[in-house]
Amino acid sequence: MWLHHPYAAGGSQLNDALTVLKSNPNVSPITLDIGANDVLQFLEHTCGFPSTYTCTEPQVAAEYEHIAANVLYILTQLRATAPKAQIVVIGNYNPYPTLLPKPGGDKDLAELNGLLAREAAKVSNTSFVSVEGQFNPSGFFGGPETGDIPTICAFTAMCPGGTFNPASPEADIHPTTLGYTVMGIVTYIDWLTH
C-alpha cells in the first residue's frame, strides 16, 4: 500500500502539495504530519540506533530545532498558497517505547512536539494537535513506557506478527489504518474547535 501518490521526477512532497492547493484553492483543513522519518534517520545515522545510542542531549536538541525550522518553512509555504485554509500540525508519537535512554522516548518526544507547537503558533489559523496521549498513553500520563507497547502495536506497524519487535525488517514506524483513524479523529476534533 502506498502512503501517497508518486511525485513528478525530481519533485518533493511540498511541491506536490502546493500544486494540489493551487488547483484546489478552497481546501480546508490542511493536515501536516511530518518529522518522524527525520527523527528515525537521525537516530540511525547519527546515534547508531537501535544497536547503540551515542547521541548527546545537545545533538538531539539541535536536530529537533532543525526539524522545527523545516516545519515552519513548510507551514509558511502552505499558508502563502492557501491563505484561508485552517492548517493542523499533527504531533509525533514514540514508536520505540522502552528503547531510548533516559529520560525515555516519550519525554524526549514531548520536547519535539513542544517545538512543533511553537512553530505552528507562528502561522495564522494554524493549530497543533498532539496524538501522543493516544499512541503513548502510559508514558504521556506519567506511567512506564512498557505500558505504551499495546497501543503502539495496535496503532503502528511496529509489531509484525503481533509482537513488539523494532529489530524486525517488517517493523515500520508509520501508523496502521487504525492508527491513521485515531489521528484523524483527534485532528477532526481540533478542527471543530478552531
Describe the protein's architecture and organization:
The chain is mainly alpha-helical and 194 residues long. The protein has one domain (25-193): Rossmann fold (3-Layer(aba) Sandwich), CATH 3.40.50. It is built from eight helices and five strands. The protein is globular and about 45 Å long.
Q: In a few lines, what is going on in this structure?
A:
With 194 residues, the chain is mainly alpha-helical. The chain is built from eight helices and five strands, in the order H-E-H-H-E-H-E-H-H-H-E-E-H.
CATH architecture: 3-Layer(aba) Sandwich
- Would you identify the regions where 5 or more consecutive residues have pLDDT less than 50? none
Query: What percent of the residues sit in helical stretches (DSSP H or I)?
Result: 40-55%
Query: How many domains make up the 3D coordinates?
Result: 1
What count of helical segments does DSSP give? 8
Report mean pLDDT, rounded to a whole number: 88
Radius of gyration: 17 Å
State the separation between the terminal residues, measured CA to CA: 32 Å
The CATH topology is what? Rossmann fold
Strand tally: 5
Secondary-structure-derived class: mainly alpha
CATH class identity: Alpha Beta
Let me know the largest β-sheet.
Answer: 3 strands, parallel
- Shape, please? globular
